[in-house]
Description:
The complex is a heterodimer. Chain A is an alpha+beta fold.
Amino acid sequence: xxxxxxxxxxxxxxxxxxxxxxxxxxxxxxxxxxxxxxxxxxxxxxxxxxxxxxxxxxxxxxxxxxxxxxxxxxxxxxxxxxxxxxxxxxxxxxxxxxxxxxxxxxxxxxxxxxxxxxxxxxxxxxxxxxxxxxxxxxxxxxxxxxxxxxxxxxxxxxxxxxxxxxxxxxxxxxxxxxxxxxxxxxxxx
Amino acid sequence: xxxxxxxxxxxxxxxxxxxxxxxxxxxxxxxxxxxxxxxxxxxxxxxxxxxxxxxxxxxxxxxxxxxxxxxxxxxxxxxxxxxxxxxxxxxxxxxxxxxxxxxxxxxxxxxxxxxxxxxxxxxxxxxxxxxxxxxxxxxxxxxxxxxxxxxxxxxxxxxxxxxxxxxxx
Lengths: 189, 169
């Protein structure tokens, strides 16, 4: 249903990305400029990967390569992460990035509502692009392997790491309590 | 003949799989060895809870170990099940060679959903946890919240003309 006239309706004028699920850091990503080339790249991915993954995906390459990576904890937006090595494209948001952070929170809330088994209560990162028509779109959601460097100081990253630590502390306590604490009483408080 | 209290204690211990000197083993899949964004906070949480005490121990498995020992999907899942509690701190397939994602995640769902740990039950199917990207993008697509994405399923026999036709429809 959403693929109707896919090429025509989603063209940013910069070619196409053929990218795989179950991957991070642009692994297996291929670029194509035409429909014929898209098919060739899909064939290549199929030959290399069909034994390990069930599908691949085609997306438009964004005209603006700038991507904002919004860090959230407990589904609340905290800050925009910064990686100087991946700082391409034209800025479309300025500190304090209120609009981008609100969008990321809205997208994550929508995902959480639609996916009853979503694990979004710890640290999450929502990566946001802007299309040529000016809309914000989610490029990726990341959780366990999310880089979350802060653009202004380490304090924000440290605060998130501290929250992750408290989250794990609570999870571990619950698991140990549930399984053993009633009969062992050995955990130091 | 044992007293009712002794019989109760015996039954209680059996029910909790509790034997003398039994230590709680937490088996952790950590991904890259002593790296990753979750590893330090997890270690700190263990230290605060004094999990390295005599009564508990944490055992780690890295993706390096998996590759070195040529562990299969089954080996990874059964290793996690072998402890009292499992913990997964990364996308479990990352950095592992020759792994079938579909098989790995269906085994995880079967074996770990009722095993105490993190994640467990239905959360093992979270598409952000599994990095099943189309699964979460397809939920955001109808409201225009993400990049429009065209999915191409890998089948035993691929019809590339049909894919081409669908892309330009």
